[in-house]
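2024-03-11 09:14:02 DEBUG pipeline.ingest accepted 1 chain
2024-03-11 09:14:02 DEBUG pipeline.ingest length=443
2024-03-11 09:14:03 DEBUG pipeline.predict start
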Amino acid sequence: MTTLSICIVVAFVIGYACIALESLTRVNKAAIALLMCVVCWTLLMMNPTSFYPAIAGEEVIHHIAEVIEHHLGDAAGTLFFLMGAMTIVEIVDSNGGFNFVRDALKTRSKRKLMWRVAFMTFFLSAILDNLTTSIVMIMVLRKLVQSRGERLLYAALIIISANSGGAFSPIGDVTTIMLWIKGVITTQGVITEIFIPSLVSMIIPAFIISLHLKGKFDKEQNLPKATTSQFTKIQRDIIFWLGVGGLVFVPIFKTITHLPPFMGILLVLGILWTTTEIFHYNTDEDDTMAKRVSDIMSKIDLSTIMFFLGILMAVAVLQEIGVLTAMGEGLNEAFSGNYYLINGIIGVLSSIVDNVPLVAGCMGMYPVAAEGAMAVDGIFWQLLAYCAGVGGSMLIIGSAAGVVVMGLEKITFGWYLKNITWIAFVGYLCGILVYWLERMLFF
């Protein structure tokens, strides 16, 4: 490695460390990611010919501009998909579309509620995404469980279930979205092979947590249903099915048209937006202004979008200078091509630092092969989808779902580490074992 390459890697590592230590530095990780991105590309421009020796003179400047546009296009596809999906979920939620979730969960039995929460979160996160599902489930949970001590156990289970559910769906987690958009996993492949391991990684921890819950809730906790908008029940149901049904339709749209996934999301958003505008035609002016999609879009967490942009573009620099390829070759040599061990380590790392740059790095480290473990839907990519998604449950800061639940319920890092980490780790290992058995017996 050249001195300049080392400087770029050091800048990336320092930025990465600041992102991981966001709770200590109290600097938003989006700001760090953007700075890291610009610093890395600026360092590359200090001596670009050393990285592109075959391109002479001024041509190297034009080549780098094209490279940046190429990577920006890849990142934009992911970002527009996320923005569209987040907006769709906001529309459904703000118009009372998720009322059925609360009604479906109501029960006085603590263990029954736990299993209902686990399975509802698991399947909802596959349809929506683990971050949004966690928010919805925590809001519902606050109305069903009054005891803080018990609610923490349910909240921890929501984190585990959301991450497990997101791992087997192409639209359930940011990492699977990235892998799916990149084309290294397919909808049918990831659902077929990862569903059972993901389910096991949720059921095992849920069973262990259920041992700590006994008895029934007070009758007073069965709260009456609340109306959240001026829309009729039929209108709210239409909004729900257009939103959720549309998200499910996106993979089908991609298969039929061969267009990028974000085009399908924009189609669903356009239809849902038009429908809500029509429904608002006869509502009060105040309600219209409060619920319009243009206002809802302003609530989207743009800092998260900026973080993804910064981190994906920073990882692109490492890919351009050849660092990721060298790391991939090093891991293969160190572990003799044992993809279970390699991905298992990546999953553990994803609980310590954000899994987005880890997956982005892996996509740069390992080229897609025509056949074998590195082929589309190969062992490596399927395991990466599982390990990066489920592995984030082992620490509360290891996933977007964990971070948002930590903020909503004020769960401490120490409490989660002491009470939940080992439970999530057991489920994680069991899922990997089940996947290995699947490959041995069926695939």
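2024-03-11 09:14:41 DEBUG pipeline.report The chain is about 75% helix and 0% strand.
2024-03-11 09:14:41 DEBUG pipeline.predict end
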